[in-house]
Design a protein that fits this description.
By secondary structure, this protein is α/β, with parallel strands linked by helices. 32% of the residues lie in helices and 22% in strands. The protein folds into two domains: 179 residues, FAD/NAD(P)-binding domain (3-Layer(bba) Sandwich), CATH 3.50.50.60; 199 residues, Polyamine Oxidase, Chain A, domain 2 (Alpha-Beta Complex), CATH 3.90.660. Helix 1 runs parallel beside helix 9 and helix 2 crosses helix 14. It starts with 10 loop residues before the first strand and ends with a helix.
């Protein structure tokens, strides 16, 4: 990447070593800044977490950020810079599983794209209004749309069973049940130019964590793990940060601070002077979705069939499912299950009471009874103390006008993370773009102050 010296002699503290923080730190260092990065975890990557232990044949799968969409240009460009190959996955797209009236589970002949199209058609009137408002979340149009949940909207349009089932199956996409999710988030998705049910998808060969590992390696001893930001203040043009590593505490001074941590953690960090009321309210009221990712390795890939997609959504307790390592060699294969919203609770309860075999039995209809489970791992993100959820969710109780405040700089404090992204919220690409943005904002603010 190109470098300059516009921030030479300037120090920046970056809190958070997920994708957003690592990207921001890399950009700032390239601008000549003296960068310090801290993260409370004992590893880098945050919600990018590739799991290898516990699986045979050297296979691995993603416990966090997984699929890279074709349109995720910032993330893909970054991977290209490091020479990381991106391999095509799930070329047959997503299917859909449904519960029949008899209680059986079957793959629906109608594709997920068809269900997506029906949902888009039903949302079209709201999308038209939203586009009239130029997709601004601080408009009365967004406020009126946003006050209803998806459940309320389905009731209002007298949706049929199929449409309700499609909306429920989106728990694996939004990590929220229809009664927890604002219909505005659906409208925002469907009013975009992209179609989440189509387009090519990729993974980084060898694991998505290869990208975060390379970003971290470039920082060297400027990166400090197991180090938590306890408090920050900005007075007299200087940032003063209180840090904790184990029992040891330390104070650090810097010219600027980039906060690249999830909102649930951000609201626990005292900032002096206090953030503006709107910004405080935005951070305080932003929910994060419940999401349990279960990676199950079987002795063979029983889910494969000529007429069956290797990925499908469902309104069932196990959530969405897809082949988690189709790009890897070996007879064994890993099935990834993502249970969002109340399905996260249902999956966790099932495993707690019946063990992992209880979850395996829920896939008997797919052919699991003919396979042997040889390894498994599970990540329940709402129980993770350093994320407290899968990613941001916009609920009916979140005021749409506050969304812009999530990324708004405050003095010498700047913000990054997927929750601050307008176009790619919830995606790894959103984290990458927000890191670039935050670094560029620090540079611009410094040049303006120096003019």
């Amino acid at each position: 990447m190109a470098s300059d010296s516009s921030l030479a002699g300037i120090s920046v503290l970056v809190a958070g070593a997920g994708l957003a923080g690592l990207v921001a730190a890399r950009d700032l260092a390239a601008m000549g800044a003296t960068v310090t990065v801290v993260d409370a975890r004992d590893r880098v990557g945050g919600r990018v977490w590739t799991l290898r232990d516990g699986f045979i044949d050297g296979q691995h799968a993603e416990a966090g950020g997984d699929m890279i969409d074709e349109e995720h240009t910032a993330l893909r460009r970054l991977a290209d810079e490091f020479g990381l190959e991106q391999v095509r996955i799930l070329s047959s797209g997503f299917g859909a599983a449904r519960l029949t009236k008899k209680g059986d589970v079957r793959m629906v002949a109608r594709s997920a794209a068809r269900s997506w199209a029906r949902l888009a058609e039903a949302l079209a009137p709201l999308c038209e209004q939203y586009l009239w408002g130029e997709r601004r979340w601080n408009s009365p149009i967004a406020a009126e749309i946003g006050r209803r949940s998806v459940s309320q909207w389905l009731d209002d349009i007298q949706a049929d069973t199929d449409l309700r089932s499609t909306a429920l199956s989106l728990r694996g996409f939004f990590l929220a049940d229809p009664d927890e999710l604002s219909v505005l988030q659906l409208v925002d998705q469907f009013a975009s130019d992209s179609d989440a049910s189509s387009g090519r998808m990729f993974r980084i060969a060898g694991g998505n964590d290869r990208l975060t590992a390379m970003l971290a390696a470039g920082l060297g001893d400027r990166l400090h793990l197991n180090t938590e930001l306890l408090a920050a203040s900005q007075r007299g043009g200087t940032i003063r940060a209180s840090l904790r590593n184990g029992r040891a505490r330390a104070q650090l001074q810097a010219d600027y601070l980039v906060l690249a941590v999830p909102a649930p953690l951000l609201r626990r960090i005292p900032i002096t002077p206090a953030l503006p009321v709107q910004q405080h309210d935005a951070v305080a009221s932003l929910p994060y979705g419940r999401g349990t990712k279960t990676l199950m390795q079987f002795d063979h890939r029983f889910w494969r069939a000529a007429t069956r997609p290797r990925a499908f959504g469902s309104p069932l307790p196990f959530g969405a499912a897809w082949e988690g390592n189709e790009e890897q060699r070996g007879k064994a294969g890993i099935l990834s299950l993502l249970a969002g919203g109340s399905a996260s609770d249902a999956t966790s309860d099932l495993v707690e009471h019946d063990g992992i075999q209880g979850l395996v039995r829920s896939l008997d209809w797919l052919g699991a009874k003919k396979a042997e489970l040889v390894g498994w791992r599970q990540a329940r993100w709402e129980a993770d103390p350093w994320s407290r959820g899968g990613y941001a969710v916009f609920s009916p109780s979140f005021a749409p006008s506050l969304r812009g405040w999530l990324a708004q700089p405050c003095g010498k404090v700047f913000f990054a993370g997927e929750h601050t992204s307008l176009r790619w919220q919830g995606y790894m690409n959103g984290a990458v773009e927000s890191g670039h943005r935050a670094a560029a904002e620090v540079r611009a603010a410094h040049l303006l102050a120096s003019a």
